[in-house]
Amino acid sequence: MKDRDQDNSETEATAPETGSVGSQLHAAREAAGLSLTEIATRTRVPIRHLEAIEASNYSALPGSTYTIGFTRSYAKALGLDETALLTELRQELAEGGYQNVARTPEYEPADPARVPSRPLAWGAAALAIALIIVYFIWRSFALAPVAEGDAAKPVAEAPIKDQSGPAKAETQIDPSGQVVITARETVWLKIYDAGNNRLYENEMKAGESFTVPKDANNPMIVTGRPQVLDVTIGGKPVPPLGNGERSIADVGISAAALLARKTEAAPVQNATGASTGPAAESAAQQ
To answer: Is Transmembrane included in the keywords of this UniProt record (predicted)?
Structure first.
């Protein structure tokens, strides 16, 4: 062990050789003069989960898969030998009976303190319903025939003509096309079917892709960074799975499910032909 550490000393930092994985990470962090807040910023892992790892309190973590993923990110942030640490961690999990534990993830990368409150969720749902009602009211007036006068014709004709554009664009995506998920940055994700059979579970590197089997039974995904994933159907892009404000779980990624989400997120065009809505705002920012 000592010879190996000496050989790697020029390229990689090492953790103390004694104690639990959590105590080794704690000692290495203090030796580097870093706080838990700084580690959380670097890894996007909530502070409460970093504290649980350092204390070897694995029951406070979402599950063994998340524990391993969080620990890997922690070790990378400190420049430690993640392979050796993860080997020790798996042994600790097996000895403590945590190896096969899997619970619904409760972390939120963008807001480590807590998940959104129930009133906030209900408020967002009410706002969405109100926006849908306003849109249909606006659309009924926009499509109403003009009674008289030529001056209003350009305004009346513009929405009708332009609204045919998105509808035609929607038909260009083949619902039987192959769904492919590609990572723009390194991200951990898990893909499984309705029977909870794992189709993919790993840390996907930038540029790597996964092709969702067409015969998969309602394939779904869970990940903490959906904004760095590009999703295509038959080679054509669809809106992102999330904006990165929170992790996602049980999100359908079959072609039918993605097209349903795409229809809901389709932009609304105003009388001048300009698109509005989440998809248009994202395109404008790019």
So the answer is: yes
Helix (H, G, I), strand (E, B) or coil at 139: helix
Give CA–CA dist 97/91, Å, rounded: 10
Q: Are residues 153 and 185 in the same domain?
A: no
Does 183 share its domain with 156? Answer: no
pTM strictly above 0.70:
no
Task: Return the ∠ at Cα 102 (arms to 101 and 108), rounded to 5°.
Answer: 130
Residues 144 and 227 grouped into a single domain:
no
Domain extent, residue 211, equals 179-264
Q: What mean pLDDT is predicted for residues 110-120?
A: 58
Burial of 180 (0-12, 13-18, 19+ CB in 10 A): middle
Tell me the average pLDDT across 228-240.
90
Do the domain assignments include residue 168? no
